[in-house]
Each structure stands twice: as structure tokens, then as C-alpha cells.
Design goal:
It contains 12 helices and 24 strands. By secondary structure, it is an alpha+beta fold. The chain folds into 3 domains: 228 residues, Beta Barrel (Thrombin, subunit H); 87 residues, PDZ domain (Pdz3 Domain); 95 residues, Pdz3 Domain, CATH 2.30.42.10. The strands form 4 sheets. Strands 1-2-3-6-5-4 form a 6-stranded antiparallel beta barrel. Strands 7-8-9-12-11-10 form a 6-stranded antiparallel β-barrel. Strands 13, 14, 15, 16, 17 and 18 form a 6-stranded antiparallel beta sheet that branches. β7 and β8 form a beta hairpin. The longest helix is centred in the first third of the chain and has 34 residues.
Length: 491
């Protein structure tokens, strides 16, 4: 009997233990099920972790990007004009054809990329890709080749507009570079190392970068910085978003070797579109200026001037008859908005002003003595008016130029200038008395480092308000004689 009771006791406790184990297992399973995501959450998580698909953007872009090749005329010399070395003639004899050929011959130049803007053949590229080229050849992605004409160029933004005779091209749609975000995926499409239709990917690393790479005196640098691989030959190519829309024109890399090492830079399409429209309509950019001397604000400068903000652009001075002064903006003001867009740096200021033409009226917000003010400003050109500027050709001056050598820079203690290498007898330089060899340093108080600078000075005089349209030159001859000239630019 005792054995039977013992057996029942063992079975009773075993049953309790079994039930408890089942209950605990069910509870744990319920908790685990609550902690696990549902099937829809798992699917959503997997979708978010999938890589971005670039195939659509790449397919949409490659047919709108072209290969740009250039040629340059290089003077060559063959034969001899005279033979004053008897030792040469003793050993080698007198040449049978003692002639000298100074006619320049075309030689292959650089190569870059371009972006098709219209069905009828307008193409945008970098100014430095085609600068001073004697001929330009454009090859499409389908291997067709065309000769290209330069409609206009702008060293200030490093943009040039080309035209080819074609009617069935595939233009790339413009996007909105203002909407680009840091960290957003982008593609660089171009022809690096003459490798046609190359696509690389990266993210937007920064916006409104000023890297001081353009050589023009009045330059606009507000680059989109990316880590998409860009190499020689990519210049003038497209920076596109994942929709295949044009976000910018690739123009530079940050490298000591000339090849990609991590960062590349593109001109925002907001600037490109305005420049291209101007070049297409006028042949030259209608550039608006505020008429101020300004600087960025850093912590040290803010403490020195006792400023209450590190954002905006500090107005150091305003120019007489400039747009800013006429509107009421003063020195020591801080520009904080342009057309309600916040301004944090001079690069952003340049980018915003670069979208407008002289005569456009915009709203500029400034901070003055801690108080926000709004000004309505009518923008002007560098001549201080709103006149339309047209393209000019320096050939009407009747002279040819070349940059001065390093020895000449050292001799005169200057950083730049243009040497007059020839003067036509009936040209305007000749009428003013300018002679071959003249080192042109300034024109109308503007420092001249290139033909583009001289063109800018010429345009200011020709389309300015002064009735006497005279180009005042300052420079010297190789013997050190300093000479000033007044060149009449009236037709």
C-alpha cells in the first residue's frame, strides 16, 4: 500500500512539473513572437537595405554626354632665311631650299566631355576644355562625329556653349541643384582618359565650395563637391542625380597629381542654365553685381567686430553708384538672405547673384545692429548701369597678344600681363601709338592677366555710361619705359 502511495506521489509531482514546463514554454514563445517584426516590417527593412539602382540614370545619361576633342595651331619653323654660320655650311653645305615657314600648323590638343542641351545641337562644356582651340570635334555616344562652333564662353564660371549641325540629338533634362542634399547619390558621366561613356558613382560631400581654381579676375566659384571618381577627360561632363537629371557640370578635381584622389567638383546647374541662356541670346554673359567688398565671417573675425552671428557675408565697403549703395545697404551690414534664401558664405552669395541679370530687382535681407532689414535692390553690371552687353572681338583692336614670360614678370615685379606681339598698321592700337613689345599691365585700372580680362575691360568701356569711350592702357616696354595710351573704342 505504501508503495502505491509513493508511486502516485511521484506521478503527481511529475505531472505538475510537466504542466509548468509547458506553460513556461508557451509564455517564452509568446514573448519571442511579440519581439520579432512582422513579415511586412521584415520586407520593408530588406527593401531599405538594398543598394540604390543607378541603371535608369546611367541609361538616360550616356546618350546625352559627348566626347570633345580639340586642336591648336602651333607655329613651326623649317629651313632658313640666311646662313651666317660658315662652319655650318663647311660641314653640311648650303641647304637647297633656304626658306622659312612661319605658318602655324594644327596639332592635337586636349580632350574633355560635353552635355547635349537641345535636339538641334547646343552643347555645354568647360571653357578650359576649348579655350584657344583652332578646331573642335564632338563625338556622340553613337560614334557620329561633328565639327563644333563656339557660340560663347565665360571664364568667370568656366562654362562654354558649343553648337553642332544636328537635329536628332537626345538632350539631358535639367534638374534643380538647390534640392541636392549632402549624402545624396550622384553619377559622374564623361570620357576620362578618352574612355567613352564612363559612369562613376558617389555622394554629394558638400555644397557651395570655393577652391580658388579659376583664373579670371571676377570669378564665381560655388562648386558641388562629390566623391564620384573624376579624371582628366571628365571636364565638361555631367553630374546627374538618380533620376538622370543634370545637377552640374564636372569641372575640377582636388589632386596634386592631376588624377582623382578622393574629391571632385561640379558647377551647379543653377549657374550653368543662366550662363548658357545668356551665351545663346547675347554671346556674352549679362553679369549682375552688387557693388560691394565683402568677406566671410569666422569666429575670430566675429569676436573682433563683436558680431552676433557666424552666418552671412560681412559688407566691408559699398561702391559708389553700385546697386547695394543705391538700395541703402551700408558698410558693416551682414547679408543673410537673397530672395529669402539663407546666405552662409561668399560662395553662396556669388551663386545666388549669378542667377540674375543687370536690371533684375531682388530682395536682400541684412542684419544691421542686431536688427533684420529687407532691401529691394536693382542689380547693375560692372559699369554701374543696366545696359545689355554684347560680345566683342579683340581683333578690332588690331593687335595680337600673349601672356608674359616668367622672366618679364620678375623683371617688372608683376604677377601678370599681356605682351603685344604684333600691331596692324590700320588698327586701333596702332592709331593710339601702341607698338610691338608693349607689356600691357592695366586697362582702365583693371589688372590684365589674360585676353579675357582685356575683353572684360573693353566691354565695360563700350557699354558704360561715359560718353568718351576710351580704353586707358598702362604698361611698359622691355627697356623699362613706362607708357600710357588712350585707345578709342568707338566704331
Amino acid at each position: 500500500m505504501k508503495k502505491i502511495k509513493l508511486i502516485w506521489s511521484i506521478l503527481f509531482f511529475a505531472g505538475i512539473l510537466f504542466v509548468t514546463t509547458l506553460a513556461t514554454s508557451a509564455t517564452d514563445r509568446t514573448v519571442s513572437e511579440k519581439q520579432l517584426p512582422t513579415n511586412s516590417l521584415i520586407t520593408e527593412s530588406l527593401e531599405q537595405s538594398n543598394p540604390v539602382d543607378f541603371t535608369h540614370a546611367a541609361e538616360r545619361s550616356v546618350n546625352s554626354v559627348v566626347h570633345v576633342k580639340t586642336k591648336y595651331k602651333v607655329p613651326v619653323q623649317q629651313g632658313f632665311d640666311s646662313f651666317s654660320d660658315p662652319l655650318f655650311e663647311f660641314f653640311f653645305g648650303r641647304p637647297q631650299n633656304p626658306r622659312r615657314y612661319d605658318d602655324p600648323q594644327e596639332q592635337p590638343g586636349g580632350a574633355g566631355s560635353g552635355v547635349i542641351l537641345s535636339h538641334d545641337g547646343y552643347i555645354v562644356t568647360n571653357n578650359h576644355v576649348i579655350d584657344k582651340a583652332s578646331s573642335i570635334e564632338v563625338t556622340l555616344n553613337d560614334k557620329r562625329t561633328f565639327k563644333a562652333e563656339v557660340i560663347g564662353s565665360d571664364p568667370t564660371t568656366d562654362i562654354a556653349l558649343l553648337k553642332i549641325e544636328a537635329t536628332d540629338l537626345i538632350p539631358m533634362p535639367f534638374g534643380n541643384s538647390d534640392e541636392l542634399k549632402i549624402g545624396e547619390w550622384v553619377l559622374a558621366v564623361g570620357n576620362p582618359f578618352n574612355l567613352t561613356s564612363t559612369v562613376t558613382a558617389g555622394i554629394v560631400s558638400a555644397k557651395a565650395r570655393n577652391i580658388n581654381i579659376l583664373s579670371a579676375e571676377l570669378k564665381i566659384e560655388s562648386f558641388i563637391q562629390t566623391d564620384a571618381a573624376v579624371n582628366p577627360g571628365n571636364s565638361g561632363g555631367a553630374l546627374v542625380n538618380t533620376k538622370g537629371e543634370l545637377m552640374g557640370i564636372n569641372t575640377a578635381i582636388a589632386s596634386q597629381t592631376g588624377q582623382f584622389v578622393g574629391y571632385s567638383f561640379a558647377i551647379p546647374v543653377s549657374i550653368v542654365k543662366k550662363v548658357v541662356d545668356d551665351l545663346r541670346e547675347f554671346g556674352v554673359v549679362q553679369r549682375a553685381v552688387l557693388g560691394i567688398h565683402s568677406r566671410d565671417i569666422n569666429d575670430e573675425f566675429a569676436k573682433e567686430k563683436r558680431l552676433t552671428t557666424l552666418e552671412g557675408v560681412y559688407v566691408a565697403d559699398v561702391m559708389e553708384n553700385g546697386a547695394a549703395k543705391m538700395a541703402g545697404i551700408k558698410a558693416e551690414d551682414i547679408i543673410i538672405t537673397i530672395e529669402r534664401v539663407k546666405i552662409k558664405s561668399m560662395a553662396e552669395l556669388q551663386e545666388q547673384i549669378g542667377r540674375y541679370r543687370p536690371g533684375n530687382i531682388i530682395h536682400i535681407g541684412v542684419l544691421r545692429n542686431g536688427k533684420e532689414l529687407d532691401f529691394q535692390v536693382e542689380l547693375r553690371n560692372r559699369s554701374g548701369n543696366t545696359n545689355v552687353v554684347k560680345a566683342v572681338n579683340l581683333d578690332i583692336l588690331g593687335a595680337k597678344f600673349k601672356p608674359i614670360s616668367n622672366n618679364t614678370k620678375y623683371k617688372f615685379g608683376i604677377n601678370g600681363g599681356l605682351e603685344v606681339v604684333s600691331v596692324e598698321k590700320s588698327g586701333r592700337f596702332a592709331k593710339a601709338g601702341v607698338q610691338k613689345g608693349y607689356i600691357l599691365i592695366k586697362a582702365n585700372k583693371m589688372i590684365i592677366n589674360s585676353e579675357e580680362d582685356l575683353t572684360e575691360a573693353f566691354q565695360q568701356v563700350k557699354y558704360g555710361d561715359d560718353e568718351e569711350r576710351v580704353l586707358l592702357l598702362a604698361g611698359a616696354y622691355p627697356n623699362g619705359q613706362v607708357v600710357y595710351y588712350a585707345v578709342d573704342v568707338n566704331e
